[in-house]
Amino acid sequence: MLTSILRAVMLVGTLAVAGGALAQAMAPAKVAETSKGKALVDAKGMTLYIFDKDTAGKSVCNGTCATNWPPLMVAAGASASGDWTIVTRDDGSKQWAYKTKPLYTWVKDMKPGDVTGEGMANNTWHVAAP
């Protein structure tokens, strides 16, 4: 009986570690087809955008900007790899970036596949392409 309990505990621990490693290794976005072509989208299928005023590894979209363009936030325990990096925002929170460009959604996109943020603010917002 004790041996069976120990095996079960070890299996659960192994699965938790493996599951955590898998969660950390997964990309924070996926690719979907939109009317603007292939785009990066979040877990809900909402289009992701980049902002021309950001610099490599630095978001300048804060306050009202971040209310309208919510950053793609990093879940606790996630780690970056490959083209995916993590940007520390001015408030200390963490945001995903793709090829050093911070990623955002747009509050006026209502459903997956919407790309209404393309070209906003004097053509400074663009659909994030893979």
Automatic annotation (TrEMBL):
Signal peptide: 1-23
Alphabetical UniProt keywords: Lipoprotein, Signal
Pfam families in UniProt: Lipoprotein_15
Coiled-coil intervals: none
Domain of life per record: Bacteria
Lipoprotein listed as a keyword: yes
GO BP annotations, alphabetical order: alkane catabolic process
Alphabetized InterPro entries for the sequence: Lipoprotein_repeat, UCP029720
Protein name: Putative lipoprotein with Yx(FWY)xxD motif
Species this chain originates from: Chelatococcus asaccharovorans
